[in-house]
Design goal:
By secondary structure, this protein is α/β, with parallel strands linked by helices. Helix content is 47%, strand content 16%.
């Protein structure tokens, strides 16, 4: 009997990690499965035969996508060829919508079943894509509590599986515990995982750190280095503003950075939900090119961009976006928060409530069951 094969595509660092945990869950249930696809270090370590490294494809913003267009088109060509050559028993897509929906179109034409895990945020912007998902995708597994209702309204088979961050071993550790007074704060800086994000956010964060040190000279900083980046890259971007006496660069999981931090300053994205898991007070920032921001504002349908605020359905943590994300505004806001321990403790209580809304551990196992059921039905 032919050995069953799953093709999996994760174009970004967080999807690579969650995809790897899904592969491990699938292998536990059926060790005979083989995997091929697009991803990064985590999927490769999980035993997936990687066709294209996800780091070559990851972009954010419209102008950034244009710059990488030749690489993206080549990736599409190779992925489509792989689909037609291998004819996998299932295609699992993880986020990365503009690329993945094009691959889904090819898979649909050759009758390969499609499971979309961690779907694009179409409830926030470019909601017209829901029609394409309904046409192409067989089943959807969502990780945020309000997403299931959105897909149900459009008659798309959907299951809320909980957030995969809660499957990580570090999520089982105790949450962040703040001291009553904060004379020696440790501040986490999480500039993002993509090259463009780090280039835009890290200098701003280091500028804010300089302002914080003027008012709080005992403050120290820990910079998170994502798996898709390197310590050398962080130091190069930091330039003369990187001072090893005040900054430490770590290649540990983001949750480890959050747990050590009195306060974190983080680029908007999935990683900010790890602040909820660890109960770490947070400032969310984000910057893109002017054109990407201008076009994005015209298309975005939600008030907030921070996932914590979206899940909480209120302004729980501050967001400084685009022109608001300056060293001065970030630094002064951080100083005010650090001087108000009651505010930080109140934020921790609210973050714990968000944590409880994320569905509990077991997302990888739930999606694995869905995947195996789909392959059984299709065999």
């Amino acid at each position: 009997m032919k050995k069953k094969c799953i093709m999996i595509i994760a174009g970004e660092a967080s999807g690579d990690l969650h995809g790897a945990n899904l592969v491990k869950a699938l292998r536990q249930k059926d060790p005979s499965l083989s995997f091929v696809g697009i991803g990064g270090r985590y999927l490769k370590d999980a035993g997936v035969d990687i066709l294209i490294d996800a780091g070559e494809l990851a972009v954010v913003g419209i102008t950034e996508a244009i710059a990488k267009l030749p690489t993206l088109l080549n990736g599409l060509k190779q992925a489509r060829l792989l689909l037609k050559t291998m004819m996998p028993d299932l295609l699992i897509l993880i986020d990365f919508p503009d690329f993945n929906l094009r691959i889904a179109s090819t898979a649909k034409k050759i009758n390969i079943p499609i499971l979309y895990y961690i779907t694009p945020q179409i409830w926030a912007w470019r909601s017209g894509r829901v029609k394409k998902i309904k046409k192409l995708v067989d089943k959807v597994a969502v990780i945020l509590p309000f997403e299931a209702e959105f897909y149900q309204k459009h008659d798309i088979p959907v299951t809320f599986v909980g957030h995969p961050l809660l499957d990580l071993e570090s999520s089982l550790l105790p949450g962040n515990s703040l001291p009553k007074s904060l004379p020696n704060p440790l501040i986490g800086l999480l500039p993002g995982s993509r090259d463009g994000e780090i280039t835009r956010h890290l200098p701003v964060m280091l500028g804010a750190a300089k302002i914080i040190r003027q008012k709080l000279p005992n403050a120290r900083f820990i910079i998170s280095c994502a798996p898709t980046a390197s310590i050398e890259q962080i130091k190069a971007i930091g330039g003369s503003d990187y001072d090893p006496d005040y900054f430490e660069i770590v290649e540990k999981p983001a949750q480890t950075v959050f747990r050590q931090s009195t306060l974190a300053i983080a680029a908007s994205g999935t990683v900010t939900l790890e602040a909820a898991i660890t109960k770490t007070p947070l400032i969310i920032i984000y910057r893109v090119s002017f054109l990407s921001y201008w076009l994005g504002r015209a298309l975005i349908r939600v008030k907030n961009i921070g996932l914590i605020n979206l899940v909480a359905e209120k302004d729980l943590v501050p967001e400084l976006i685009q022109n608001e994300a300056t060293p001065e505004k970030i630094g002064n806001l951080a100083i005010n928060m650090l001087k108000n321990s009651a505010q930080l403790e109140k934020m921790q209580e609210e973050l714990q409530k968000v944590n409880k809304l994320l569905g509990g551990p077991g997302a990888s196992n739930r999606v694995a069951h869905m995947a195996l059921d789909m392959m059984t039905l299709n065999s």
